[in-house]
Amino acid sequence: MNNKAFIFKNIDNLMRLKQKIGLIATFFLSNFTSIFAQESPYYQLPQNRKSGSELITMPNLNTFTITYFLAASVGIKKSFLGENAVSPSAIESSSHSEGFWDISIGQTRNDNWIYELGLAKYNSYLSTSFLALGRNPLPFRNETKQFYVPLRVKKRLWTIDKVSRSAFLNIGLGVSYLVKNQKKTAEQGRILFNQRPTPEPRDYTTLDFNMSSSSFPFAFEFITEIRGKVSERIEITAFGKSFMRPNKFLNNQFTFNYVDQSSVSFGAYEKPFSLLLGIQARLNSPKYYSYKSGVE
Fold first, then answer.
1. Which CATH architecture has domain 65-293?
2. I need a surface site. Which of 65, 121, 160, 192 has the fewest CB within 10 A?
3. How does 220-233 read in b/e, with b if 16+ C-beta sit within 10 Å?
4. What pTM was estimated for this model as a whole?
5. Mean pLDDT score, 55-67
């Protein structure tokens, strides 16, 4: 009876020892696996590491962020006028401010470089009115509607808010390709004047007019903007642009013909520089992270 009790007691002790060894082995194996699982990405080639929306921080590993966005802009375009020669009759030329819109898609890299590709619509307007040819002014309007495809590159110049990094001053360059120039007014013609019974040599006989627009396909932008983050997904930008096109993009030219067969030509035109002011709203994607080895 004592032998049986001794045997059962030893078996019970062996079972308890086995359970303790199993628990210790399980603990060490789980920690061993966890340690190597954490370190293993470091030993992978950077191009084999998975890029995603979660940041991995490791020694000798350079990290940069990529964000994609959809943006919409609205604003005002102000053109400036020039005149060639002097009209023998009083005239008034004007080019009032016109609205524009722009939609674009793009990519932001490290909150440092921004690349945009979009579609923009501009209106251009140049009016010349003759004030002394009749009881009422005689107006001539040169109006066009243009659609451009812009490609822009912007660079962060200064971080305005260095604590939260939510406001930046950017500068940039852009080139736009003209895909459509829709003219809304007549281009050229001639107006005949009634003659007095005994005409004077310097009486007008006709007024020839030619209102043209350039077909040059490229325009260039010089950009300054203040970009602010409302949240990680929403940004608002206020911008100013210098918009450069060929001289006389819009051109109103006139010729007075006289009874004595002489003529005088003159006109008004749009200068190559226009000023654009506007705001942009931007919807960002989540941030994505890419990695490059810091060891050459």
1. Beta Barrel (2.40)
2. 192
3. ebebebebebeeee
4. 0.76
5. 72
